[in-house]
Amino acid sequence: MIALENITSQRGDEISFTNLNTSFEIGFIHGIWNETDNVNTAFLKLLTGNAPLGQGTIRYKGVSLDHADVAYYNKADMPGSGFENELVPYQYDNKYEYNNKLVYLFDNIFGSADMRSLVHLYKMVLSLKKMGRTILITSTDHRALLASTDFFHILSKGAFQAKIHFRQYDLLDGVIMQMQHPQP
């Protein structure tokens, strides 16, 4: 399990996350939804060690997460084709190397308008899942995440507000509406 315990992160004078607590089961695909890309990116960069961690702990199987075991990709990092059944290429020093990471982070890679790339990328993500890797995918489009995830996490106001298993996706629209338009 990947566990985030009492995470606080701050960039300049702006606090990004305060007392962030959640967990991600190993070997599953986790979708993380937020309305804005920069929050998703800031969260994933905490896991890679590329964003400042003010306090708290990030653990993988009970020990501190080694950032060398984490691969991060955004849409620009994804090569065109040919790797559905291979390890994901990891960009390092402007070249792609095939690495065997434990955790794969994909920052807003699914574009619902481009169904061809959605299917292609989903095949790649499924191949990683079959290898027992833990995959976190962020998006501002919750529909793109629904088709591709085992768990759906809602990150709002600097904290995780909900975690929904794929068997409960029929509840998702109501939860998102409540998050966007809270009742007084």
Give your account of this protein's structure.
This protein is of the alpha/beta class. It has a single domain, classed as P-loop containing nucleotide triphosphate hydrolases (Rossmann fold, 3-Layer(aba) Sandwich), CATH 3.40.50. The chain has helices at residues 37-48, 115-130, 142-146, 172-180; strands at residues 2-11, 14-24, 29-33, 55-60, 63-64, 70-74, 89-92, 95-98, 103-107, 134-139, 151-156, 159-165. A hairpin with a 2-residue loop joins strand 1 (2-11) and strand 2 (14-24).
Which SSEs are present, and which pair or pack?
Elements: E1 2-11, E2 14-24, E3 29-33, H1 37-48, E4 55-60, E5 63-64, E6 70-74, E7 89-92, E8 95-98, E9 103-107, H2 115-130, E10 134-139, H3 142-146, E11 151-156, E12 159-165, H4 172-180
Parallel strand pairs: 3-10, 3-11, 6-9, 9-10
Antiparallel strand pairs: 1-2, 1-4, 4-5, 7-8, 11-12
Q: Characterize the biggest β-sheet.
A: 6 strands, mixed
Query: Could you name the CATH topology?
Result: Rossmann fold
Helix count equals 4
CATH class reads Alpha Beta
Percent helix, as a range, is 10-25%
Round the Cα radius of gyration to an integer and report it: 16 Å
